[in-house]
Design a protein that fits this description.
The chain has about 280 residues and is an alpha+beta fold. The protein is built from eleven helices and nine strands. Strand 4 and strand 5 form a beta hairpin.
Length: about 280
């Protein structure tokens, strides 16, 4: 089913896959994806956050997220369903910003063996597969939306005490850190100044540095800004219709030469060589 598993231009889809589609090079998801690991293990990046995925881990990738499988075992395998951004906006955003923020801060969860949570996750995947197989039914779009809606309503109900606790009891520094990551996603094309992001958070650049150093294993705000920008360049390099000069223009670099030097400084490879690797 791998050939059917594409997040581009799909309203809804189900697949059983090793997620090779997302290996080696970062991709931005147009829609969202929920997957349950049923075998093996993998290390993935969701934006700038690295996650260890093992058997019985359920993961939610929200629409517009940059997602990469860094490495995986030969037997790594997941069951997954995807849904469009329009479907996500219709369903999840109505449940409130606290829930959406919780999904961003806690995108994966290890479900205990023999727990109701794991049993229900497996049942949802079986239902997702049944709806995907449904043909010649005038109600298919409604069935798909109702299924995704029921999944998130179930998740909302089961996780409500956790995301409310996180919202009320989570440290201010943790909330500021994840807000900083969200701001990077929103403004990285136009803004690369530490001062800009500090002002958005209503704190000083020095205090932002302290927050990042304590929550991102010693990295500085500038390092995360650079890392996020490199991620954006890598995503754009996968589109053969955009020239390197075009990428420089879109990302507000002075010229192609400046972008190439910046990219090579952080990756030890030129943009053109990176693009050739993708082609091969």
């Amino acid at each position: 089913m791998d050939e059917m598993f594409s997040l581009n231009f799909r309203h809804y889809c189900y697949a059983e896959t090793n997620l090779n589609t997302f290996g080696n090079f970062p991709r931005r998801t147009d829609g969202g994806i929920v997957f349950l690991c049923i075998a093996g293990e993998a290390v993935i990046n969701i934006g700038l956050v690295e996650c260890q995925i093992t058997k019985d881990v359920e993961t939610i990738i929200l629409p517009g997220t940059t997602f990469t499988v860094i490495e995986s075992s030969e037997d790594f395998w997941v069951k997954a369903f995807i849904f469009s951004k329009e479907m996500y906006d219709y369903i999840v955003l109505r449940l409130g910003i606290s829930f959406s923020r919780y999904l961003i801060c806690a995108p994966f969860c290890l479900l205990s063996v023999n727990s109701d949570f794991l049993k229900n996750a497996k049942l949802y995947m079986e239902t997702a597969a049944l709806i995907h197989k449904e043909k010649d039914n005038d109600f298919i779009p409604l069935m798909q939306r109702n299924f995704v809606q029921n999944y998130f309503l179930y998740l909302y109900n089961k996780c409500q005490m956790y995301f409310e606790h996180s919202e009320n009891q989570g440290t201010r520094k943790q909330r500021q850190f994840y807000t900083f990551l969200s701001l990077l996603d929103r403004h990285i094309i136009e803004e690369r100044s530490v001062t800009f992001y500090a002002e958005k958070l209503c704190i000083t650049p020095r205090y932002l540095r302290k927050i990042i150093e304590r929550t991102a294993t010693g990295k500085s705000p500038k390092e995360l800004i650079d890392k996020r920008l490199i991620l954006e360049i890598k995503v754009m390099l996968q589109n053969p219709d955009i020239s390197i000069q075009g990428i420089a223009d879109k990302l507000n670099f002075p010229d192609q030469s400046y972008l190439s030097r910046y990219f090579k400084l952080h990756t030890n490879i030129s943009p053109s060589m990176y693009r050739n690797r993708i082609k091969s």
